[in-house]
Structure formats: structure tokens, C-alpha cells
Amino acid sequence: MYVKNVVGSSRFSKPFGYSSWLEYWEDHAEQKANYCSADNCWGNDLVGAHVQKAYSDDKNWYIVPLCSSCNQRTDTFNVSATLVPVPSHL
Q1: DSSP letters for 17-38
Q2: What are the DSSP calls for 36-89, one per residue?
Q3: How many CA atoms lie within 13 A of 20 on its CB side?
């Protein structure tokens, strides 16, 4: 799935009951994040990154595991991880 990072999403705090957005992703995706989900990246300094689907009318926000470097990308890129929707109350 092609995605782009959401600019300015760091102002949103992690969901109640979770220590991080990455933990939120792992719980909802029912898998452990071991590596960056961006294609051709094996970074393991992971965060739960806010992204939007690229080339889509869907403007919802999603969480995916990305390394710190890929979380700063400004281009459109492919991820292999499950997109977990961000709670609508944000």
C-alpha cells in the first residue's frame, strides 16, 4: 500500500491505555513490529507512524511501524504492514 506521512501528527498523544502508538499498532494488528515496514528498509528504531493512503480518496489516518528515518520522509512510499486506523476521537 502506498502511503505518505501525516505532517504535524506528533501533537496527538498516544491512545489511553497504551505506552506508545507502536504498542497500539501491535495490539490492533495482532503482530509484533520488528522492522520498518517501508519497502527496502530494515531499520529497527521503530515508532508508530501516522500515515494516509496515497492515490486514494480515503483521507483517514492510519498507524504503521516505521523507523525514525522513514517517519521523516516527505515522499510517497510503499509499506508492507497492516494499516491500523487511528481512533476517530483525535
Answers
A1: T-S-HHHHHHHHHTS---S--B
A2: --BTT----SEEEEEEEESSSS----EEEEEETTGGG--S-EEB-SPPEEPPTT
A3: 10
Q: pTM here?
A: 0.92
Dihedral sign for Cα 9, 83, 4, 52, please: negative
Query: What span, in angstroms and rounded, lies between the C-alpha atoms of 46 and 49?
Result: 9
For each of the chain's 90 residues, which pLDDT tens digit applies? Answer: 999 999 988 788 888 999 999 999 999 999 999 999 999 999 999 999 999 999 999 999 999 999 999 999 999 999 999 999 998 754
Pairing of strands 77-78, 46-53: unpaired
Q: Is 9 helix (H, G, I), strand (E, B) or coil?
A: helix
